[in-house]
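Rotation project, supervised by the postdoc (A.L.). Task for the rotation student: set up a whole-complex structure prediction and record inputs and outputs verbatim in this book. Inputs entered:
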Amino acid sequence: MLDKTPLGNLPPAPGVGYKPQHFSDVMQDPAPVRWLEIHAENYMGDGGRPLAQLRALSERFPISVHGVGLSIGGDGPLDQDHLARLAHLVDWLNPASFSEHLAWSTHDGAFLNDLLPLPYTDATLARVAAHIDEVQDRLGRRMLLENPSSYLAFAESTWSETEFLAELVRRTGCGLLLDVNNVFVSATNLGFAPRDYVDAFPLDSVGEIHVGGHDEDADDHGAPLLIDSHGRAVADPVWTLLEHTLARSGPRPVLVEWDNDVPAWPVLCDEAQRAARALAVLPR
Amino acid sequence: MTAEQDRFAAALLNPGAARPEGLEDGGHRAAGRRFDVYRNNVTVSLIEALQSGFPVLTRLLGEANMAELARLFLRAHPPSSPRLMLYGEGLPEFIARQEALAHLPYLPDVARLELAIRQSYHAADAAPIDPGLLATIPPEELLAARLRLAPALRLLRSDHPVCAIWRYNMEDGAPRPEAGAQDVLITRPEFDPVPLPLPPGGGDWIAALAEGMTIGEALDAVADQPFDPGPSLTLLIQGNAITAIEREP
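Outputs recorded:
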């Protein structure tokens, strides 16, 4: 378990997920955007434009490295090659924050490119905690773990998700990344109140908050099924849930995620401005 | 490994497999098509990764046919690493085994060229030599020298006009490809890889240089064909593809 170090060094201000097509815009006029998040896996080449852009960005902005492929919830050992590449990137960049997901994505050597769910049991808790310990030891820093968006639940689960995450914090000393869009998606899909989830969440351990867009579908019974698509503007009830969260947690770094059908820079800035307004009304 | 993730993963990649048991909605009813969200995410995201990684292949086949090819490929060969920037290494051979595509014999090499361009894009940086340096070396010494080539350099030898096919599909106003074999040199002058056709013998000569032969030994290796190294050397220099000249002490 790592000692209590800060929950990362991101400012309690708006950030956005960085897309290469926005490079000139970001460098010329970042407007309300104060920091950027990158997906670690996109910067695991040996050189060329991606790393050159990242170097230039890191000279102007705090960077959050967000992994999407470590498979911390996987039932096999962590991919040591991937962990080594991650350590290389983090050592080189010294980012303001590193985060990953409570999910699995690799099985039997195959990378499935999705954040897959796991049951919340004593056995999975022990396994995920061991993987977090391994990552934090290897990177020599505290990591943030993100709550998933859920489309289904496991009959065998014996822990609630918030208790499961709180226990991981207690065992490993990791921090948490609270994705309030994921909370809204999971709450709608599984039929619980999103505010109850936020109120039960260990907010003191939250080093970063995500908001993003979702799509609407339906299950076999016609019940609403929201899909965490990151392909549109943040929905109004998710902004409301962000305000509720910030009122309880106090100021936190807030990231706007928009990964598919990526809009022009000014549209993304409008979303970041909305996050800035949610932060601005908090008592100082 | 737990049997649970075995079953979950197998059902993700096999649309005919039964959905795993023990999955529910929030009210203890069977999860049903909720599981298909994950199936769909896996399949669609990997199809999109292959379509964007092989833009010319996608143009040649059409988006729907490319999606169908990608679906077959990803089920047989899911990525072996989270670095999707390199996904699709086995696609050329996979295409070559598809009987339905046998009437388009150049497709595997188009896929090889697109892979090579992607590898070049992500290859390590290396400072090129000062182009004036070559002119300062006496010819005998130059023949005995070895060229160290940039990590971003790639070479593709094809029985098809693969570079012309690539250009015709990527650039407005590019000429129609004409039948014939083509050796292709890919260099990365700055950040964007550039594929260019080599004159006859150029592919063999640069391959010999890449193996570590001296310039003279590499010329001997192509002595069975009429070959002037000048144009190929110019392409290497213009592509910032020579990073050192190693001379005997």
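Student's summary: Chain A has a mean pLDDT of 96.
Supervisor addendum: The first strand of chain A starts at residue 14 and ends at 17.
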